[in-house]
Amino acid sequence: MPRRSYIFFGILLVAATGALAKKEPALPAPVKAPKQLALVRVNVTGQSYDYFRPWQKKAPFSKRALGAVLSNGRVLVTADLVANQNYVELERAESGEKTAANVQVIDYEANLALLEPTEKKFLDGITPLEITPDTVVGDRLAAWQLEPTGALLATEGLVTTVQMTQYPIDVGQFLTYRISIPMQYRENSYTVPLVKNNKLAGLLLRYDSRSQLLDAIPAPIITHFLKEAESQKYRGFPSAGFSFFPTRDPELRQFAGETGKAGGVYVNNVEPNTPAMKAGLQVGDIVTAVANHEIDQNGNYVDPLYGKIEFTNLLTAHVYSGDVVPFRIQRNGKPMQLNVTLEHRDAKDYVSPPYNLDQPPRYYVLGGLIFQELSRQYLKEWGPNWQREAPQRLVYFDRFQSELFPDANRRVVILSQVLPANSTIGYDDLAYLTVTKVNGREIKSLADLAEAVKQPVEGFIKIETEEDPKQIELDAAQVAAEAPNLQENYGISFLNRLD
Amino acid sequence: MKRAFIFVWVALLLSATCYAQESTPAPSPIEPQRPPAGARMPNTPAQAVVPVPVPIAPPKPNGPVQKSLVRITNTAAEPDYKAPWNAGGLQRSVGAGFVIDGNRIMTNAHVVSNSRYLTVERDGDPNKYPAKVQFLANDCDLALITVPAPDFFKNMIPLKFGGIPALESTVSAYGYPIGGERMSVTTGIVSRVDFQLYTHSSIDQHLAIQISAQINPGNSGGPVMQDSKVVGVAFQGYSGDVAQGVAYMIPTPVITRFLKDISDAHYDKYPDLGITYAKLQNPAQRKFLGLNDDDRGVLVSTVVAAGPSADILRPGDVLLAVDGHPIASDSNVELEGERAEFQEVVERKFRGDSVKFDIWRDKKPMTVTVKLFTPWPYLILGHSYDVHPRYVLYGGLLFQPLNLDSLETYRPTDLRLRHFFEYFVQEQIYLQHPDVIVLTNILPDPINTYLGPYRGGIVDEVNGKKIHTLDELASAFAEAPEHFVIRMIGDGPPLVLDRAKVEAARERIKARYNVLKEQNLEEQPISKTPQQVSKI
After folding, report:
1. B419 and A255 in contact by Cβ < 8 A?
2. What gap in Å lies between CA B259 and CA B111, rounded to an integer?
3. Is residue B527 domain-resident?
4. In total, how many domains does chain A have?
5. For FRET with B484, which of A72, A360, B123, B388 sits at 20 to 30 Å CA-CA?
6. Would residue A37 count as lying in a domain?
7. What total of structural domains would you count in chain B?
């Protein structure tokens, strides 16, 4: 917005002086070197994997978006935009010049990605955007979009709150700006930069057109991402691995032995193999301070910029994997200090991984029975309301995975569906069954299953499931003999994918 | 019309493939009180629906049915699960009934359940006669009532029962649809004979006959007749926007079973084997089990520990024959020339009866006998009637056992609660939690200001002691420790109550919320005639 008014003002002056001198038509003088916006168009075509037909990809999609040009010839976009991409193309707004681009770094959890043009000089002439991390409630930010002509379209909005919210990939919470702004629809409104004083303050995360509220990935998260992206190996945002509960209830405080100051949160659950567990945090502890910031009963600390905000911000935006964060706790009424060495928790470290993008899903087809590993990516195949529409038993497994599968180092193998074939006659209606054993061997991953099916017992493959019918048998020879026909019939390129 | 059928068909397909999803839209019991649902236009006006006249053989007159038919008015009190100490809201409804031998009136259970006051009227008599429920069978939606007035049955003609009417034969339904005061007759044909869900309890499946006669609210409990004999009792149907011309009646095998069950003055309910089984249609599976290639047998998947088959049948057993009737691999048997689900053999039996199975275990034939009863864990999955809801109120916290009625009252979205309900029997959750005790509601008071987040939690322990039943919870609260530390299932923090503070608040909460009684541990029948509802 400020930039636009500046340009406009300049043009007015030129026009006014011209009009005074001679009574000529009041046309603006031609601009010799037009100001180059630090924006490029990003065109993405991609294909998601089809979890219902895991051997194939879905029909291609194409997305048009904007990218913010940063220093060193990098372009910042949301991870949403480039997840499952086949081809990314950058386009100069004014000239329409195009080049291919590579995804340099991507963080699905923070929803950020860096692109670099294959043609190094492509971004020449553009002054990169600087980043301003100091946005606070009450600031006005401009959302930058492009008109079809390549001209800037700026809309101004007010930052109404700064808080911790869930990002699209639901692993913990991240800092978010919420902005009240009447966005206009443009062809490429996918990754929209939010700008303050010509500096990048955030990127569009989601927008609700009814309430006209926009959530933005804030500059502190972007800065964290960029800093980490410079390191050799991108590790992602750290997590501590525990959940907590407010201590407003005086009875609960007393029970936990907390009689002193009125702050702290109750530790509900400490997940195995996480930094919190390694540091010795226990269920029932009261965490009173993190990184020397006092925590109140609701779990908020006083941030110098934002005021009260949830302390999980101290464990994401401000710290990196490997950092040691001091925790002050009360255990049975006694104060203690723990040093928690933060780590990033990879999607593969979950029993039911929260996301799986840019990677083909694993599967195993056996005579028409399709086996897959339970993941939230699979459940999300049921659409935006997957939590209600996906098979409830599987949603329950995903939701309570750390409670139901304390042995974290495993997967849940499901018989997801059955393709009717000669060897699966009578099994056609089976679906969403959890596999416990195959040929007597315990199954904790698809690799286990692939191994176990190689050892038929007296010519039969016996599959045991937790749910009814509890047991399914196949004739190993028949399965092998029928495989080519099955592949042909259902268009299955490969009968399994284990990596 | 066509669309409605397709809709039902799609729904069926979904229920078959989606695990633990909502089941198919069940036909609703014919609610007598509701006004007619207006003449609704079908959703697909694209093609004009031309009614095709169905050739129906003209019904033969069934005699003076009005001499047997009665109009029943029931004032019922539905239990209030949100404030279980209250008597519940009153509702008045009208249904039909008919006189049978022994000065008894047969009707549907849903016409007379939860009754507080019952009257019957008969044709050509201005009086309303107070009536009494004699027997109530909620699992098959049948009831017997009687009128104490000495002369009531004097000029009434008891009706006789017939058999299963033939497909396509014409039947007539009698009743008081839409609450009218004069008898109404409608005619249709027998469309289908099959197992159906009985929606009054909503868990029981029995034989039911689908007829094309128009049946509407107020027909409930009325006789469906052919050749001057009762061939069924009208009881449920689909509302017009799901399917039209689809109504159901309870056929005579179910009726005679009910009459036989109560011949000892006590209704025992349907027994159940307490097993789940799978069809055995896969050749490789049959070979693996060492079965002959003769299309016989079903595979036992789960044996309910609280059921009659526990320790007799095992998962992996193959049921080859029931009482000498060979079981086909699609789980059907042949009974009197008709194919029916093999469960039908068990359906016709009573508590204490035996069923003999020829089974195949470890590739050897065996014979076992199961002595039947009703496995109790199934009961929480269905609706209950004529009971006082059980609850414990302590410190403004309302604890109630999970059952279909409380679930439908609170409609929780909580995954864990729904899982406990869905898998209560199949995963044998009842062994650990005979009562799944839920903190369903909180009556706000200063002592429970911060306890909102615990709502919907399932009680696991109190002061370190596992809580299995509501009675155990009540006795735990009757003790006098300084604090009650209540652990819920799952991660959450314990719920801590200061006993002294709760004791001080007790009278205050009772007075503020008009709580008459702080707990009810017995689901005893409301009515004074104790034999009408049996409890297991």
Report:
1. no
2. 18
3. no
4. 4
5. B388
6. no
7. 3
HSE-CB for B251 with a 13 A CA cutoff: 19
Region of residue A487 (left: phi > 0; alpha: psi -120 to 50; beta: else): alpha
- Give the A window 438-467 contacts with B, CB below 8 Å: 460, 462, 467
Distances (CA, A) of B290 to A64, A460, B317: 61, 12, 12
Q: In terms of residue numbers, what domain contains A146?
A: 130-229
Q: Tokens 């009578």 sit at which residue?
A: A426
Contacts of A299 (CB under 8 A, 6+ apart): A244, A246, A265, A310, A311, A312
Q: Are residues B2 and B109 in the same domain?
A: yes
Range of the domain at B320: 275-373
Query: Per-residue pLDDT for B180 more than 90?
Result: no
Which residues does residue B438 pair with via DSSP β-bridges, in sequence order?
Answer: B400, B458
Catalogue the long-range contacts made by A220-225 (C-beta closer than 8 Å, 24 or more residues apart).
A220/A133, A220/A175, A220/A317, A220/A318, A221/A110, A221/A112, A221/A174, A221/A175, A221/A316, A221/A317, A222/A76, A222/A112, A222/A131, A223/A131, A223/A133, A224/A110, A224/A316, A224/A317, A224/A318, A224/A320, A225/A105, A225/A107, A225/A110, A225/A112
Number of H helices, E strands in chain A: 11, 29
Of chain B, the percentage scoring pLDDT greater than 90 comes to 70
Q: Which candidate in A374, A473, A482 is best for mutational testing of the B interface (most B CBs within 10 A)?
A: A473
Same-domain pairing of B207 and B327: no
Q: How many helices (H) and strands (E) does chain B have?
A: 9, 30
One domain, residues B228 and B83: yes
Asked if the structure places residue A378 within a domain, the reply is yes
Q: Choose the final residue of a domain: A278, A308, A341.
A: A341
Asked if residue B442 and residue B300 are part of one domain, the reply reads: no
- Look up the ipTM and state it: 0.85
- Tell me, yes or no, if B200 is annotated catalytic: no
Which residue bears the tokens 């062994």?
B431
CATH, residue B66: 2.40.10.120
Residues A362 and A489 in one domain: yes
Kindly report which listed range (A26-35, A169-178, B422-431) carries the lowest average pLDDT score.
Answer: A26-35
Contact indicator for A303, A313 with CB cutoff of 8 Å: yes
Q: Is the pLDDT of residue B17 over 80?
A: no
- Is B93 one of the catalytic residues? no
- Same structural domain, A422 and A482: yes
Query: Is residue A452, in this structure, part of any structural domain at all?
Result: yes
Strands A471-475 and B229-237 turn out to be: unpaired
| Interchain contact B78–A (C-beta under 8 A) | no
Query: Quick check: helix, strand or coil at residue A408?
Result: coil
In a domain, B505, yes or no: yes
Q: Is residue A8 part of a domain?
A: yes
**Are both B331 and B437 inside the same structural domain?**
no
Please give the structure tokens belonging to residue A290: 């993190």
Q: How many CB pairs under 8 A join A and B?
A: 112
B264 and B279 share one domain: no
| Residue B71 placed within a domain | yes
Same domain, B225 and B82: yes
Do B259 and B352 sit in the same domain of this protein? no
pLDDT of residue B20: 29
Q: How far apart are CA A399 and CA A76, in angstroms?
A: 33
The per-residue pLDDT for range B202-211, each reduced to its tens digit, is: 888 899 999 9
pLDDT tens column, A159-190: 999 999 999 988 889 999 999 999 888 766 67
B150 pLDDT more than 90:
no
- Nearest Cα neighbor of B245 from B186, B323, B305 is B186
Q: Which residues of B touch A243 (CB under 8 A)?
A: 491
Q: How many Å apart are CA A101 and CA A118, to the nearest integer? A: 5
Are the beta carbons of A245 and B493 separated by less than 8 Å?
yes
Are A394 and A367 in a shared domain?
A: yes
Residue B481 at interface with chain A, using a CB cutoff of 8 Å:
no
Give the pLDDT confidence of A214-271 residue by residue, as tens digits: 999 999 999 999 999 998 889 999 999 999 999 999 899 888 887 666 789 999 999 9
